Amino acid sequence: MQPKILSLGGALLVLLALxxxxxxxxxxxxxxxxxxxxxxxxxxxxxxxxxxxRFAGLEWPPEEVVLxxxxxxxxLEVWAKGRHYWHKIQDYKIKGLSGGPGPKLSQxxxxxxxxxxxxxELNPNSNYHLSMKLNYPNLFDKIQAAKEGRTNLGGEIxxxxxxxxxxxxxxxxxxxxxxxxxxxxxxxxxxxxVIAPRDFRSRPVDxxxxxxxxWVKELHQNLALNMQDFExxxxxxxxxxxxxxxxAPAAVPVAASRQPVSIAR
Length: 265
Description:
With 265 residues, the protein is α+β, with helices and mostly antiparallel strands. 31% of the residues lie in helices and 20% in strands. The longest helix has 22 residues, at 34-55. The protein is globular and about 50 Å long. The N and C termini lie far apart (59 Å).
């Protein structure tokens, strides 16, 4: 009987490992590296995106990109910086996300983060086809958590393929192929990811009916202020895109934290 007990225990451990791997967009299957995957999809992606860039007077790849995610409308917009203007190049349906309005606060709350983020890494062998890891929690998230005594903020937040997600943004396989190649060719340092609970360009900030903490309300005001710079028209590329300024006193108006548009390093 003893060998059977050991065999069952080993099988359970293997099953547990597989379940854990399946839950992470970073969990990898064996496969090619980033550059090999980029070359696999690059021609297809160029055929889809290059005409849109050319129509806006831009070349492939663009110099700087802002990915604007809107949770309520489940849309991810792609904006590229030209010589004088920001141009909307494409938008994608967010096919899977979880939670509701409000930022991610802790491990397991299944909330999608809100705020200003960067892409840290590209995973060419994700269990969700391809994935891009965000720098959640960022400095702003960590400072607010410290003020409130929160210690387990969670992590492993991605934009990825497939159509299901808990806490991440699932945009489908073809869309992640576009953004994966775009990110690789534009450069991760030249991409900013902005995630908002709703489209503040057309909806008021204080219409949630939720008593958010003061810092969340200020974050939403800051997001709303910056989303005005990305209307359905060309806007001067010299306008401002806010960076989180957690070191600023709370009494400082939100508008005072706006800084010249240059992608956070």
